[in-house]
Amino acid sequence: MSEEFNRFYYHQTFPDDDQLRNTSGGAATFPHSGYNTFTFYTDSSVNGQQMFDPTSYVNFTDFLHGSADYSSFKDSEKPAVEAVYGGEIPATLNSLGSSSASEAAEDDGYLNKGKKKKKMAEDGEGSSKKEVKAKKKKEKKQREPRFAFMTKSEVDHLDDGYRWRKYGQKAVKNSPYPRSYYRCSTEKCPVKKRLERSFIDTSIVITAYEGQHNHNQPAPRRGDMAGMFAPPSMLVPPLPQLQENQSFPPELLVQIPHQHLYSYNGSSTNNLYHQPQTLIQHQQFHQFTDHGLLQDIYNSSCVPKQQHRDFHILQ
DNA sequence: CGGCTTTGACCTGCGC
DNA sequence: GCGCAGGTCAAAGCCG
């Protein structure tokens, strides 16, 4: 895999569900473990490209397009792609955007109003608004890598070990449920997350993380029992045998009961109402349209807007 | 009183 | 240019 691309941890389940593959470039095989309990979708990308080593696995772009070619897979191995996880930000990403985290933060709208006005004044004194606008357009902000996953939960805000401050809430179009915006409470930590409940299946909470924590998990406050009462499904599993230079942010190590996993049916189709692949058995498939977070996630990755994506719930 | 949520206003990007 | 939607700000209020 080229250094240009993010490192990916790629989990796929097989029909008999007794194998789990995890790859970051070269394929590494992990025995069946709790790690097939992730469901991630990511828009972390470099130059709009996002892929696995095409010689080993399907091209990630094709995967998102639903046009991945699985012909090289044996029938028994055709994956019900279950989870995709974007890992480290490659060094080359920094050169594409801002040169420092603080600058990135400013570009990303972290300036408060006072700072914004000040910056406007600084920028605007000698130059016209048009120029400022053009400049801003040129410096199109580079989004932090973002990860999203879906959890079957009655609780909206799942405890992930970090402290969060809610900074906004917005009504979501076509959804009775609002979207909540949180920022990591730790000073200078750029991580944000968004929570919204799926209106397709109201028992599903969609969580999207943006950025990476620059600190360890804070110690629980006095009287903070969240961790102590966290259900087993929320506990952080032991790390797999990842290679030295691989990272796996602990906040993403949230187990989701396997029967609640979402699955992407990797067959090549543009028909939203197509029949699921027969190799995936004993599943009820629900339509999962891409509004809200998912829509945003996929819009900002490489999926054409008019293309259908088929998501299904494994039950 | 500190930390957090709520919520209306504001900013920004995008499509028409 | 306008309107819409997403995202953010910040003052006010709540709570332990």
UniProtKB/TrEMBL annotation:
<protein>
    <recommendedName>
        <fullName>WRKY domain-containing protein</fullName>
    </recommendedName>
</protein>
<feature type="compositionally biased region" description="Basic and acidic residues">
    <location>
        <begin position="120"/>
        <end position="131"/>
    </location>
</feature>
<keyword id="KW-0238">DNA-binding</keyword>
<dbReference type="Pfam" id="PF03106">
    <property type="entry name" value="WRKY"/>
</dbReference>
<keyword id="KW-0805">Transcription regulation</keyword>
<keyword id="KW-0804">Transcription</keyword>
<dbReference type="GO" id="GO:0005634">
    <property type="term" value="C:nucleus"/>
</dbReference>
<feature type="region of interest" description="Disordered">
    <location>
        <begin position="95"/>
        <end position="144"/>
    </location>
</feature>
<dbReference type="GO" id="GO:0003700">
    <property type="term" value="F:DNA-binding transcription factor activity"/>
</dbReference>
<feature type="domain" description="WRKY">
    <location>
        <begin position="153"/>
        <end position="218"/>
    </location>
</feature>
<dbReference type="InterPro" id="IPR036576">
    <property type="entry name" value="WRKY_dom_sf"/>
</dbReference>
<dbReference type="GO" id="GO:0043565">
    <property type="term" value="F:sequence-specific DNA binding"/>
</dbReference>
<keyword id="KW-0539">Nucleus</keyword>
<dbReference type="InterPro" id="IPR003657">
    <property type="entry name" value="WRKY_dom"/>
</dbReference>
<dbReference type="InterPro" id="IPR044810">
    <property type="entry name" value="WRKY_plant"/>
</dbReference>
